[in-house]
Amino acid sequence: GSANVPETSSVQKVIFRYDENRVEVEVKSDLSSEITKLFPETEVYQRRLQKVIDEILDQRVAKTDMKVRHIVSKAIEAVNIWLDKVSGENPKSKRSIPELTLPSLPEKLFLKYDGLFRYQFNKNKLTLTIPLPLGGKTSEDLNIPASITIPEIYHPEIMGEGPSITFTVPTFTIPRDFELSLPLIGVAEVSAKVNSNFYNWEGSVSGGNDTIDVPSFIGKYKVAAESPI
């Protein structure tokens, strides 16, 4: 579906695919807005907000010579050091510490989202043999008669007479067991991707039964984020 309002457009799509091997559901969303035309005084509001933020950051912390700005900067620096250690990046290539200012708004804001769910069917099956009660017994073993006879019926009030009727009961044998086939778990995958002026994020998770010749199970994940600001 799609929607259009002044200076703004939005498009959403849902795509469903299915065959004998897999099932997929894909979701797409595209939103864009010419923010400067929609809100002509955006820069004025941004300057006012930046002024309020600066006033808060320039306040001195009680019983110290430090300002709030210094503490926030040190906290961001500590987080960056921790992220470098977790990601195993070269310590010489340090992350830059962003200035504590609001980013300028572009003329056009956009937000794109792509999501995908995929399930790969497993063609192998698990067969269970379930023994049945009285398995192997025949109708003769269970003393079931070969025929059933309904006797002649006579009713004097209606002056009617019904002849006797004989029903033949077919012979049968109860099977010894019942085979139940269950499909094995396949491989499921979920992924998502978000792109915007200020932040890009991508992640995926997959896992399941990847057995071909020998039992094999897999589990994977991936997360990546980037901010161009």
Automatic annotation (TrEMBL):
Its main location: cytoplasm. The lineage of its organism: Eukaryota, Metazoa, Chordata, Craniata, Vertebrata. GO terms for cellular component: cytoplasm; lipid droplet; low-density lipoprotein particle; mature chylomicron; very-low-density lipoprotein particle. It comes from the Eukaryota. InterPro entries: Apolipoprotein_B. The keyword Cytoplasm applies. GO terms for molecular function: cholesterol transfer activity; heparin binding; low-density lipoprotein particle receptor binding. Keywords: Cholesterol metabolism, Chylomicron, Cytoplasm, Heparin-binding, LDL, Lipid droplet, Lipid metabolism, Lipid transport, Lipoprotein, Secreted, Steroid metabolism, Sterol metabolism, Transport, VLDL. It is found in: Cytoplasm; Lipid droplet; Secreted. GO terms for biological process: cholesterol homeostasis; cholesterol metabolic process; cholesterol transport; lipoprotein transport; triglyceride mobilization. This is Apolipoprotein B. It comes from Anguilla australis (Australian eel).
